[in-house]
Amino acid sequence: MKRRVAITGMGVVSPLGVGLERYWKGLAAGASGVRRVTRFDASGMPVRIAAEVIDLPFDPEWGPTGLAGPFDLRASLDYWARFGLAAAMMAARDASVPSGAWADADVYFGAGEGQNDVPLLARLIAPFASAETGCDVAAMLARGDSRPFALRDQLIEATTPASLVAARLGAGGEVTTCLTACAASAQAVGEAFRRIQRGECDLALAGGAHAMTGPFDLLGFAMLSALSRSGNDRPERASRPFDRDRDGFVLGEGAAALVLEEWASAHRRGANIHGELIGYGTTSDAYRVTDMHPDARGAVAAITAALDDAGCAPADVGYVNAHGTSTIENDRAETLALHRALGDAARTTPVSSTKSMTGHAIAAAGALEIVACALALREQVVPPTINYETPDPECDLDYVPNRARAHTFDVALSNSFGFGGQNVALLIRRPEGGRR
Amino acid sequence: VRRIVITGLGALTPLGNDPETLFDGLLVGRSGVAPVAAFSAGDVRPAYAAEVNDLGFDGLGVPRKKLKMMGRNAQLALAAALNAWVDSRLNESAPLLDRNHAGVVLGTGMLNADAVGLGHACAAAGTAPGALFDMKPFATAFAREMFPLWLLRHIPNLVSAHTTMVLDLRGPSNTITTGWTASANAVGEAMRLVERGEADVMLAGGADARVSPLATLRYRDLGWLSTRGDVDPIDVAAPFDRAASGFVNAEGASVLVLEEIDHARDRRARVYAEVAGYGAANDAYDILVPHPEGRGLARAVRRCLASAGCPPDRVDAVFAPGFGIPSFDAAAAKALEHVFDGAAPRPALTATAGALGNTHAAAAAIDCVAAALATIRGEVPPTRNLREPITELDFVHGASRETPIETALVASYGFGGHAAAILLRRWDA
């Protein structure tokens, strides 16, 4: 038996703004969150742009204080942990679940690790560095100034945001962090959805947080030739999914959280229902580390599985929030996947990539985008793909170029694909009685 | 209800690189601790760790180029997965296997930055000790000095994804990063995928490789790592002992093949044990230290036993989560005392970390291998270095104990408030 799953709370920390309304305002306006890197000197880097969160306000409820342990975490919590906590607390507040309900609730987060503190690492290692051996490790271990390093290093473990959220909410159920690269938080939302759908739990907070916007992240992805370089001088134009002249993605950051509840109990307590999750599919390409399968077989299988799970036909899908990273490879393969999975319906369904505006928040991207779908359903407006100027013959769908569009639709599909051939598709439906 | 059995085992551990050697080592109380081999530790304390020798990729057919792209945790995971795969003989019944219903869920953890590589970048950039850090020359030098694909070694999900690629498994896959309970959570998630019918076969377990200079500094400075130099290194790791002084750092990997029971029967697979229950919970207390009463662990174990329909007094053996960190051991002991209080007969407990050290995200999956073999052999390994237990619980120490084991519980507990438990039931064919 499949139970229905309601989304009763949402929270967002994004480069377009903090909170649902600012996020939606940015998406609907076709705003870009991509800027020159502000947090460190990126002038020596091949890529010098990112979509940073710039306006996370201070709210004592989002702070790390009030935990039980002896460690003072305030100075040591990295960006993504603060984003994740803020998004989760906003979602919990939005859902206004009766207090006490969290005690048995699950938390499922998609998150990578926090950022390495590069100046701190350099201070630790530089005194023992040499061109011959790299680092005199024995001397560093014996004499290195490691004091501030340990707590900081421990707190960049991927599980920190979810554990923090669990401690703050008093969520004593299953608290899980997964990392399926760029599909991670979509997978987390999907797995939490599945648990409620199958009766394994009744209430969950799901989402993700990531901030791969640090020096090592820019360098690492640039060295893999994954990032847009042409956009260094025109940051807001750099992320151009499905455009012929796209040349890589732009790193972004943020967090999104959703409160998921068994439908009947949410309805009974009179909860404000943002949307209904109705389908989830996840597959592996089993092909290559950084390339999608040329026939997009895993992506097709994930979308098909999500449709089957929901009992939807391709024509029921009214909008696709694409993975749409703005790399040559992804956007071509994803277009093919949509053709194969949706058939004729692909040509008439609007498809957009909000990464054109938010950049690519990696592990947090999927959750940010399912929230975008919920807001689009609420407003009956599909957000655009900005910077779409020149069509690519291999990308021949309706990408909602540059301007948001009023659109009557009930079901949205959100795609998320990750390095290593991880594919996730989620389907969300407008709640009955929503405005038309 | 779909039942799930274990039909293949793979383990790379400080006690040996196959399940039987591991279990025999545990039974006789051998230690896997030795002077650190991964880097030159000099006279730092600790200069010892429990490492895996020779990953044994010869003959497994994985190209060297591919191995070079992988972090050590991914290499460990792939070797353990391939060993489990061969052991399950699923490759011989390939036509029966629907690859869209087979996948991988592994637990893993963070691979610290490479101190030697960063040293090269610092040297090339002229990064001056003590001076204000200048990012520009460092970044330029870093891009020039580092292996161009270095980031791929640090992306955690590739630990699982490499296995999907090598074995062509196209079903669900996931990578769990919940710290010390990660491989217990991975086994639980994989079990559910089979239970729900989303997969027929799942490779589940975990791998972690944290014997590195920076991880050593981290754990030493957090006070979790033992720095004892007054006893033989093989006698340092003392789980649940009054004199416990911290964990001994370790690495390892373990992968189990989980299979739906009819799928296994149809191909006449060898069955090690049934996976009868799973439960997970969180302390919801603090992100670093455990709740003093271990409330998350108690909840996880109770959930696990309930899901298996097994009352506490029907548990025969418990592989307990204790690495020798006094605060964590005490909380774990309290939790198990709460659960098994009044159980008659009481289960026999053991902690493998006395022999293996803290294998982090791999620990619970390695315990699952040991627990599966314990149900077959009818013998509980001793807890190495446990002399004066901090609890009245019935810990096996000194020598192994022969006893019929119908059910073995693997309990897992760690930082972040994470707790999980898996119940294995003996398979009487």
TL;DR of this structure?
Chain A has 436 residues and is an alpha+beta fold. Chain A has 14 helices and 17 strands.
Using DSSP, what is the number of strands of chain B? 14
Topology order of chain B in helix (H) and strand (E) letters: EHEEHHEHHHHEHEHEHEHEHEHHEEEE
Low-pLDDT sequence parts of chain A: none
Tertiary shape of chain A: globular
Quote the average pLDDT of chain A: 95
Given the helix and strand composition of chain A, which structural class is it? alpha+beta
> By helix and strand content of chain B, what is the structural category?
alpha/beta
Kindly report how far apart the N and C termini of chain B lie: 20 Å
Low-confidence segments of chain B: none
Question: Can you put this structure into words, describing what you see?
Answer:
The complex is a heterodimer of chains A (436) and B (429). Chain A contains 14 helices and 17 strands. By secondary structure, chain A is of the alpha+beta class. In chain A, the strands form four sheets. In chain A, strands 1, 2, 5, 8, 9, 10, 11, 12, 13, 16 and 17 form an eleven-stranded mixed beta sheet that branches. Chain A has a two-stranded antiparallel ribbon with strand order 3-4. Chain A is globular and about 65 Å long. With 429 residues, chain B is α/β, with parallel strands linked by helices. Chain B is built from 14 helices and 14 strands. In chain B, strand 9 (317-319), helix 12 and strand 10 form a beta-alpha-beta unit. In chain B, helix 1 (19-27) crosses helix 14, helix 8 (182-195) crosses helix 14 and helix 11 crosses helix 12 (326-340). Chain B is globular and about 65 Å long. Chains A and B meet through helix 3, strand 6, strand 7, helix 4 and helix 5 of A and helix 4, helix 5, helix 6, helix 7 and strand 5 of B.
